[in-house]
Amino acid sequence: MPHYVGLDVPVKSVSICVVDETGEVLARDETSSDPDAIASFISEHAAEPERIVHESGILAIWLTRELEKRGLPIICIDARLAHKALSGRINKSDTGDAEGLAHLARTGWFSRVHIRSEASERIRVLIGARERLIRMRKDLEAHVRGVLKVFGICMGSVGRANLRQGFRDQFAEAGQTNPALGVMAGMFIPIHRALCAAAEAMDEDLRLIARQAALPAAS
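Above: the chain's sequence. Below: its structure in token form.
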């Protein structure tokens, strides 16, 4: 008889419910969010589950990958649609939601969420980090330009040469005209240099990944 499993996944613990094809609850419990603990409970109460579902959320990507590695038929489903389906249940608790998710697994009334591969996730993380570094650098430059204008100093345009050294040179020169600007320049110039260097290093990593992806597969 096929078994179906629902996982309600807060951050620290997981409520698990196993039902059969008729909807009868066979087992339920709460365990840690450790994938081995989850897999152990499922193997004990549902040796060959037909489907296991959990909602999209903060741990969804990691948990899906880890349970897939353990050979479990895990499916991440759309949390918003699942919430609508579960909102009519009288017993609104983690245990009740786990049972509701198990019934969704049994009936197939859910919308599957695509989980990116680890390789895709690594690229996404790098791109996001690069964007954050560039945003921080732009925010710092905009702040400095605004402060200098208060003192009647307007910075000229800055090129990309030597990690935007032109900006730091102009800032250092402005710092010599006023003690407060000098203190500000002493603090911000090293930060600006570090942000530019980090963004450039991230660019190199992404270029390397792009070159490797463009190479034909070895026969």
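The two ends are 45 Å apart (CA to CA).
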